[in-house]
Specification:
By secondary structure, this protein is an all-alpha fold. Helices cover about 80% and strands about 0% of the residues. The chain is built from four helices and no strands. Helix 2 packs antiparallel against helix 3.
């Protein structure tokens, strides 16, 4: 019975929305190492940033790290890996319902807010 439901959802995604769930799942799994590689690079750069400016008694903000050269590449890798499967849906999907866009945009804003808070916490807690 459960296999029948999965097949119905698969057929709906392929026939009505022109999105293959197998490709979506592949992109999800494929992006995981890049997502964590991006986090590793971000945290490594945050630790180096914190060490460079620790003794200068500056009031550093999270936005100050954006001017660092080594920070942008891991940030782009992390965010691209995070959104890659959904770009597939946006780019190749058809007849996507309006509520998908509302949820997707809400998810982008909430996740970005949580991402910056987590990054800020990691920078502030580093030695």
């Amino acid at each position: 019975m459960n296999i029948n439901i999965i097949q119905i959802w698969n057929d709906l995604a392929v026939n009505q929305y022109h999105v293959d769930p197998k490709i979506f799942i592949f992109l999800m799994l494929f992006s995981v190492p890049f997502y964590y590689f991006g986090w590793y690079g971000l945290l490594r750069e945050a630790v180096d940033f914190r060490k460079r400016y620790k003794d200068k008694n500056l009031n550093l903000k999270i936005t100050d790290i954006l001017t660092e050269n080594g920070f942008i590449f891991p940030l782009v890798v992390n965010r691209a890996a995070w959104v890659m499967p959904y770009i597939y849906v946006i780019g190749w999907g058809r007849n996507i319902p309006w509520w998908f866009w509302v949820l997707f945009i809400g998810w982008i804003f909430i996740s970005t807010f949580l991402f910056w808070n987590k990054l800020k916490e990691k920078i502030n807690n580093q030695v």
